[in-house]
Amino acid sequence: MLVPSGPLSPLQHRLLRELDLSDLPPPERAPESYLVRDLDADEVQDVLPTLEWTGLVERRDGDPGGLTLTLLGALALRTAECDELTARLRAVASFADTVSAGVAPRPAGLALRRLAEGTWTLERAQVHVRTNEMPPGAS
Questions:
Q1: Beta partners for residue 68, in sequence order
Q2: What is residue 63's DSSP assignment?
Q3: For burial by CB atoms within 10 Å, which of 6, 96, 129, 134 has the most?
Q4: 0.90 exceeded by the pTM?
């Protein structure tokens, strides 16, 4: 997804996903709210100015105030998720070409499932069906 500042970073994407679930207090006031979500409050503070400037996130007025996802932020989040799923579907379609070349069904099934889940890349799935071995670091 392209926003005025460029594509969303993994941290920006993650923060938008968290804000889609619920508003959050400012990181400087409640860093523990970010810690329990496995987010670094200092890193969040670093990306907030860009997210606010692009209109994806806004600070609510009031006591104590907080961060909320804007409609534009929700759109950016959905677009980024759609782009991710589109890329995954393309990989699955490319993998189907590999499978149609004739591979054993069991390795192909495992590789297809991992590819569709997004836990393996297309290259990792292809190595698995070609060699019938688990790629390094695969589980």
A1: 58
A2: S
A3: 129
A4: no
